[in-house]
Amino acid sequence: MYKQLIRPILFKFDPEKIHHFTFSFLKTSQKLPFVKSIVKSRFEVSDPALEREVFGLKFKNPVGLAAGFDKDAKLYKELSSLGFGFIEIGTLTPKPQPGNPPKRLFRLKADQAIINRMGFNNGGVLEAVERLKKNTDVLIGGNIGKNKVTPNEEAVEDYKICFDALFDYVDYFVVNVSSPNTPNLRALQDKEPLTQLLQTLMDKNAEKPTQKPILLKIAPDLTDSQLLDIIDIVTETNIAGVIATNTTIGRDNLQSDADLVKETGGLSGKPLTKRSTEVIRFLAEKSNKAFPIIGVGGIHTAEDALEKLDAGADLVQLYTGFIYEGPQLIKDINQALLKRAR
């Protein structure tokens, strides 16, 4: 019903406005207990065979929502009711920031893709913490970044602030240095600054009575040499794992209107399917599967998800595929996993 009836209507309107409308609709409708019950019965697949234990956490199923959709932790409970096994919030920064000026979100329908240059728009980490204090049952990842005005040489402090603020309210952390929409952020993926950043957070983690998994989210545009550096950094710092991958700045072989294709920002969706899987496979093979990987990028079918898991991912996340395919995609993936397990 979503693809045939709902999506054509939603796609007639501005993507960012529809995003806010959808949030309001889901928040309001699920305040009614019978609606929430219907939604859960329609989309949730519950079976012990779907459970996964990864970096010390137990996931009820391996299909999560990627960061960027629920930046400010406003809708994690409602989104969990759609069948996700975990929700990643953020990217959050120490101080609130508006992000880049609109228009900053574009649908490339012919490519089943999205270009965004949102720029870490969020209400700040402390605002999100107040919402997360109400969480009792949703497994939450906290994706953290730096404010736009913070120079790279001071970026570590921003990540430390977010880490400390969120520590008691998330189950794992994701260090985002791979968004193309904050000036110079990707320079932090270079070996020396990235090692320093991750080691600093791991040192802070070690000071806590119990530790939380810290993961690194990487870009799909890294070369093989850079990916080998990532393996070295993960091994050296002993972080829990990697999320592969973020959006791409590449624009190869797109079919959409040229005016859309030339928009700056990160490209997500179907054009990223193959490359993100290649990165997952490279990391898994070259590291001899030394650390867990969360696979994300271009998952629009159950088969796409299975390919990433077969390539070496332990869990998967959706974003653009969720927008194009709707919540049925979550159910399809979990049902395919159950079918394979039997």
Give a brief outline of the structure.
This is Dihydroorotate dehydrogenase (quinone). The chain has 342 residues and is α/β, with parallel strands linked by helices.
Structure description:
This protein has 13 helices and 13 strands. The chain has helices at 2-10, 15-29, 33-43, 76-80, 125-132, 155-166, 191-206, 224-237, 258-261, 273-286, 302-311, 320-325, 328-341, and strands spanning 52-54, 57-59, 63-65, 86-92, 105-108, 113-116, 140-144, 172-176, 214-218, 241-244, 266-269, 293-296, 315-318. The chain is globular, with a radius of gyration of 19 Å. The protein starts with a helix and ends with a helix. It is found in: Cell membrane; Membrane. The active site is at 179 (nucleophile). Monomer.
CATH architecture: Alpha-Beta Barrel
Structural class: alpha/beta
Strand order in the sheet with the most strands: 3-4-7-8-9-10-12-13
Describe the largest sheet.
Answer: 8 strands, parallel, barrel
What would the average pLDDT be, to the nearest integer? 97
Number of DSSP strand runs: 13
Overall morphology: globular
What level of helicity do the residues show?
Answer: 40-55%
**CATH-defined topology:** TIM Barrel
Topology pattern, helix = H, strand = E: HHHEEEHEEEHEHEHEHEHEHEHEHH
Total helical elements: 13
Based on CA atoms alone, the radius of gyration comes out at 19 Å
CATH-assigned homologous superfamily: Aldolase class I
Top-tier CATH class: Alpha Beta
Strand content: 15-25%
Estimate nothing, just give the exact number of structural domains.
Answer: 1
Instruction: Give the CA-CA distance, first to last residue.
Output: 29 Å
Provide the low-confidence segments as ranges. none
